[in-house]
Amino acid sequence: MRTSEQQGVLLYAFTCGHITLPMSFFLDGEPGKARVPACVFLIDHPKGLVLFDTGFSDRFVGMEKGLGKIVDMPDGANISDRLKAIDVDPGQIDYIINSHLHIDHAGGNHMLPNATIIVQTPEWDFGLSGEDSAYDKVDFDLGQPVKRIDGEHDLFGDGTIVIFSTAGHTPGHQSVRVRTATGEAVLAADCCNMRRSLDEMHLPDHCYNVDQYRGSLETLSRLRRAGAQVFYGHDPEFWSQVPQAQELDLNTLPPA
């Protein structure tokens, strides 16, 4: 972790479970199934520790029925254990930026008791509505402080961690631009499941709002053309090339 000599923003990646779903869930019309990671990021800023998403809950460990048939959550893969493995106390996490509140993105929130959750207002309201079974309030409605935002939000006011709306997958999906010493990262989550999603403007077979989803992909495309490194939300091939649990150097990652 950070030493007294290190300045700026440090970025780390973790896998916190996998899920197996039809490939069309990620790319409309594609056959077969895909086993994809639940991707989590730690952003170490001089003013605080921030997580972007928290993966699956540890309640899935050992589960063989229901969602346990498609969710693979090994013991020790939860975000709390991932943080402890790099000497980070989960109780010291200041903020959780949930891209959205689906079970593979907010499942570890309960392990971070002192964190403030940052979520777009439409996402919070929709998650509480009970209209979509991909949300489970046991993951996110925990009494933690919740900061509801609408649109773009510069977390520390210095341009290094900027949250922006990427609606379409859900009503209030959001992504994050992170400026590090080695470049700008865009943590896309489910507004861009695969590299092919962006290369081909290829949408999934389900969207809360198709027009918004396409617009979010267009936003990511502009950022990628400007030189940002996009982290695709569920791309197993791309993710296999992302170093885990160590400071990321964007210059060493696969071409965006």
UniProtKB/TrEMBL annotation:
InterPro entries: MBL_superfamily_lactonases, Metallo-B-lactamas, RibonucZ/Hydroxyglut_hydro. Keywords: Hydrolase, Metal-binding, Zinc. Its cofactor is Zn(2+). Residues 37-234 form the Metallo-beta-lactamase domain. It holds the Pfam family Lactamase_B. CDD domains: AHL_lactonase_MBL-fold. One of its GO terms (molecular function) is metal ion binding. Belongs to the metallo-beta-lactamase superfamily. This is Glyoxylase, beta-lactamase superfamily II. It comes from Parasphingorhabdus marina DSM 22363. The lineage of its organism: Bacteria, Pseudomonadati, Pseudomonadota, Alphaproteobacteria, Sphingomonadales.
